[in-house]
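Second attempt. The first submission of Glycerophosphodiester phosphodiesterase had a stray character pasted in from the spreadsheet, which I only caught after the job came back as garbage. Lesson logged: always re-copy from the clean sequence file. Corrected sequence (217 aa) follows.
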Amino acid sequence: MLIAHRGFAGDNAENTLGAFRAAARTAAMIELDVRRCGSGEVVVFHDAELDRLTDRRGTVAETSYDVLTDCDVLGSGEGVPLLADVFEAVSATVGVNVELKTVDVAAAAAEIAEAAPHDVLVSSFRPEALRVVDARSDLPLAFLFLTTVDDPVEQALSLDCDALHPPKGLVNADLVETAHGRGLDVNVWPVKTAAEASRLAAVGVDGVIADHDDVLG
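This time the job returned cleanly.
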């Protein structure tokens, strides 16, 4: 399965509505990041700080939505969108992987996602965020990790997850076989080239969370 990392961040201005609309033409699922902004809304943005990705400074957590929507994300002319706006912008035939960047956004993001007609997968590095969603909804969950962790399959199962999202450098056939044997899908990130995708397909992964739309050929 081809999953568009931040709306194919290597091809488009990441986490913008334009990126998601473009990605939806080729991807089976789009992946995005959510946070709470200063006025309380659930917005789609990767970083805690604004300066790397926009023409503004400050933190998302301290900036109101009316300012965020007026930002220019990576020179695209687009502002920071609401999570609800992404569901409206993208066909319900395309899945949405909602990554929770903070614990405080978990409950609100789950409520928005449950109301959407899309297939939704909620992922996070933060176990407590996944626990919040698990307690409040029936949404499928994915345990996301960046560096080596002790027994990631068991950690995912302890969080009632349906999928494991490991970084590409830690993926091998043994991990995939173990995860599959315990009923977990394996979606790998961030995939940047066709060669990487080919290697991962050879070890049996279920999905590639990719920066470009052509990694599967």
